[in-house]
Amino acid sequence: MINRRDFMRLAAVGGGAVFVSGLGRSALAADSTGSVAPGYDEFFFVQLSDMHWGYAGPANPDAANTLKKAVVTVNALEHQPDFIIFTGDLTHTTDDPKERRTRLAGFREIVSELKVKNVRFIPGEHDASLDNGAAFKEFFGPTHYSFDHKGVHFVVVDNVSDPGASIGDAQLDWLKADLLKQANDAPIVVFTHRPLFDLAPKWDWATRDGAKAIALLMPYQNLTVFYGHIHQEHHHQTGHIAHHSAKSLIFPLPAPGSQDKRTPLPWDPAMPNNGLGFREVEAEVKEAQYKITEFPVTRG
Amino acid sequence: MRHASAIGMLLGAVAGIALGGTVMAESAKQHPDKEQVIKIVAQRFSYSPSEIVLKKGQPAVLEFTSLDFVHGFKIPDLNIRADLPPGKITRVRITPEKAGVYDFLCDNFCGAGHEDMNGRIIVRG
Fold this sequence. Notes:
Largest interface: A-B, 25 and 23 residues
Number of helices of chain B: 0
Number of domains of chain A: 1
Order of helices and strands of chain B: EEEEEEEEEEEE
Number of strands of chain A: 12
Strand content of chain B: over 45%
Strand content of chain A: 15-25%
Oligomer: heterodimer
Distance between the termini of chain A: 63 Å
CATH superfamily of chain B: Cupredoxins -  blue copper proteins
Radius of gyration of chain A: 20 Å
CATH class of chain A: Alpha Beta
Helix content of chain B: under 10%
């Protein structure tokens, strides 16, 4: 049975996204058979992040195998997700454009083994910052886009193709126009690589013009952000908007600002996958609601 | 975002910020009545020097030469940042008004050692 400690649930009910962490599927099930009660499983997706394919170093001596193991684990999930998204740093950076493409190709080949074929990708700074996303686009298409799935609007924001971690005015204009098509209470999920807020600026854990993006997101009451970059689970609120970062699949990093340097946590041979992982997210789409007004026999 | 994009950044020119403090770099010439000029070389993946000592209230100019990339220079706690394009000198004027230790970093992703490209300014009272 797959460990679902990272199970997260987005319930678009009651005027806001509800985040429930630390729940196994059994905690959501309505009966003892392990089946999930109808209505809970509108759909779910899997987020994997920061694979850094091509990394070689002491922080993960098993780097050549970690991603492959994660693919096997995803394929073994009891319930396959509707889609899978990789939120950046698919590869570890290299100055050599040819080697960058070799790593992107290697990554793509490994994840082609996923059973689920609805797979989406966004770049991280290791994939895209040294060539403004050119190689990434050759392999995976646009670096920012949106799509809809079963009543939820998903938006991918690129805050890495600029090495200075700016989204840029052109993309911000696109984001504004994209969101304007949504009702203020529509369920919306934003994917990005870096945090949009100033999580730890001294570690470069921020987006230079992220405040502009958040200002565009604020009118939407049912919006949640999922991101990567910081190699650990972290949860933060900017007003009513929740931001959830994912673990890495290469090496964990220390808690934001907790030490002088953002050096990887030491590899533990006794627990080689310690601090690594992925998550699935369940979206429960708002049910139809009916406003009921009762009347007496006579009025007045 | 309250990043310093509008503050303290001029390419190839002098940017001025009043911060309250004194700046003294080990490699800097001392001009008690004038601005200190502190020359800093930026290249993948370090600043040299990476530790700069300033004196509270004494104006200083950080004079950057980048050798290989448009590195960034950012002091988050002081809301200062600049791009450091190679081929020109980028000057950041600073008058620290408060003693303390201020981390700085490259905030333009520059490659595999980017995460290690940082330093600190020590402002003494």
